[in-house]
Design goal:
This protein is of the alpha/beta class. Helix content is 39%, strand content 15%. Strands 1, 2, 3, 4, 5, 6, 7, 8 and 9 form a 9-stranded mixed β-sheet that branches. It is globular.
Amino acid sequence: MSEKNEDVFHLGLTMAGAVSAGCYTAGVMDYLFEILDLWEKAKNGKIDGIDPKLVPTHKVVIEAMGGASAGGMATIMTALYALHGDVNPVKDIPENPMKSYNVLYDSWVHLDDDKNEKSFKKIWDTDDLDSKGLVSLFNSKIIDSIASKALNMVDEEKKKNFPNYVEDKVPNYISDDLEIILSHTMLRGIPLSVDFKTEIARKYKNSPKHYTFEHYLVSHFKLNNGMAVDADKYLWFNPFDSEYSDKIKWSTIATGAFPIGLAYREFDAKQFTDNYIKSITKRVIYGDFGKENPDTNNEIKLDNSVENFTSMAIDGGAINNEPYREVESILRKFHDDTKELQNYGLFMIDPFPDNDDILKPYKRPKNLIGVVPNIIKTLWNQSKVKRKEMLEQYNPTFFKGVIYPRKHITEGNTYIKPDKYPIASASFQAFGGFLDVNFRVHDFFLGRNNARNFVRYFGSLPYDPDNSIIHPIHKNWTPEMVKRFKVYKYEEEGDNRIFLPIIPDLNMLLENKKPADDRYNYTYKEKPKYDAKELISLKSNISNRFKRILDKVEEEVLSKDEKADDETPITDSWMNYSFRRNWFQRRLDSITSWIAKGFKKPGKKFLASSLTKFTIKTILEDLEKMKILKTKD
């Protein structure tokens, strides 16, 4: 456990699901690491041009991180970046976007692009259909490839000396006992029983209980100072040992298994032991991940759990897209009931923040066709509802803040209005980042710019010495520090309440800037525009994948017998009697079957062509709406 000194601020990070917009989250983390590293070096007098008298001496330590889907993948990449020990921020737009910088940039901007093929073309390849059958709409091999590249850290020497490596290499702003949470949605639930047996009924062994099923589980990793963990309670974050690196990789891929679009993944006892399942389920039920066993009275038995539990898993965001309560529960170990202002807080990075649409006019479904999508949306939203989080928001003693895409349209330094579509990767249901590396570069740098604005202004705490409102981390700040970093809540409205940052951005000192000087300054000023020729050139690839999917549907679903065994002979007898066909009808069935076979191949070709046209049209319309589509020559 990290130290509980008053001048230490314990930070948790939550990274929400984002699909291809994980490049935005990567940009945010790239900037946070840059300024944390710069601050640490300045404390040690290693940065020329910074007056040591202006360098705050408190500490910020990242204690826990968590994420779902692309946010979960970004969480792992961030932890790997921390373990590398060397921070190499990407400060300027590269002339060659495929140049290698760090695991955050390389994983999320490069994706699986190479000199031969782009990632967007690869997702339409059909080789996965030949080897695995139909498991997803898109070819998901690029996800495996990205994870493998990021986790290519297996090293026998570091494996032997992992505790020393953690002590020597992990930066001071990263806890040596860093905890990591990844969300998973299990298609097979863990049975949770509610005993409805009366006292009289208890002697009957087969008397039923009422069951609900927990489909939300997490991978809970611990760095644990480089020491091995109890596998029945935690997963060890050790990427230098293949035994543990493989588990990290699998959890990373599984949390990003976007429903239908990307391949589902299977968990078995190699990943989660039966005892781990029981242990983590208790933490899920209690919503407390800061305790090894929150069920202190051992009231939850989980006696009906299946041995050697196996389940397919899909995107963690399907049930919990922003696991911020899980991260916050880990931080509670630093809670001090005697303090009004707590020394811990939470930053959430959310490329697609949910907005309240209750004010939009309600569109009443006209028929069953309109009700079905509403049913799906209702079930999805209900599975993600956050009741405890909603109640706990009224606890004002610790800091919470969100970093999200924000870009302003300006003329010179004059603000005009916010950009309605600030993030390029939002197109094509958030798969738009796969289209073009320039979209991902833009969003990466927007993440950096938004992180800069957040830490300089919004990531601040009140400072009012006259009314004894001083957060513990600011108690030792000198008047010079206060003057240099202070911000006002609403200065333009005459509200001169002072706030001081949690993380001082020392780039302000190097660049001689004030907190608001760069508020409307963006590294990538104009959003890149996409050439439709790139997409249209893939028309045959897209059509071929749709056709192969239709072949697989016919092969794996439609062509199989409805019943493998004759389990209902009486029903069959009645059906044959009641719906028997006469000679003419049997002949007509044969002719119809012959015609259907003749038109089957052209029919699938036509359907594949129609789906291709629909897909291309949908993507281009989305890009045009966002004003990132080039005009036709």
